[in-house]
Amino acid sequence: MSEKHFANPTSLEELNATPNLFTLQVSSNWTPPFQLRKLCLAGCFIGPQFPAWLQTQKYLEKLRLQKTGLSSAIPAWFWTTSCDVVDLSQNQIIGVIARIHYSSGVFLGSNNFTGPLPQISSDVTELILSNNLYRGSLSPMFCQRRNDKEVNLLEDLDISGNLLSGELPNCWMYWIGLTRLDLGNNNLTRHIPNPMGSLFCLGSLHLRNNHMSGDVPVSLKNCSSLMVLDLSENEFTGSIPEWIGNFSGKLIKMFSVHEQIVYTPGLMVLVLHSNKFNGSIPLELYHLDSLQILDLGNNNLFGTIPRCFGNFSRMVKHAIPEEITGLHGLIFLNLSHNHLQGKIPVKIGDMKSMESLDLSMNRLSGVIPQGLANISFLSFLNLSYNNLSGKIPSGTQIQGFSPLSFIGNPELYGAPLTGDFGEDGKPKGPIPDNHDGEDSGWIDMKWLYLGMPWGFVVGFWAILAPLAFNGDWRHAYFQFLDEMKHKLLG
Question: How many degrees, rounded to 5, is the angle at CA 157 between CA 153 and CA 162?
Answer without folding.
Answer: 145
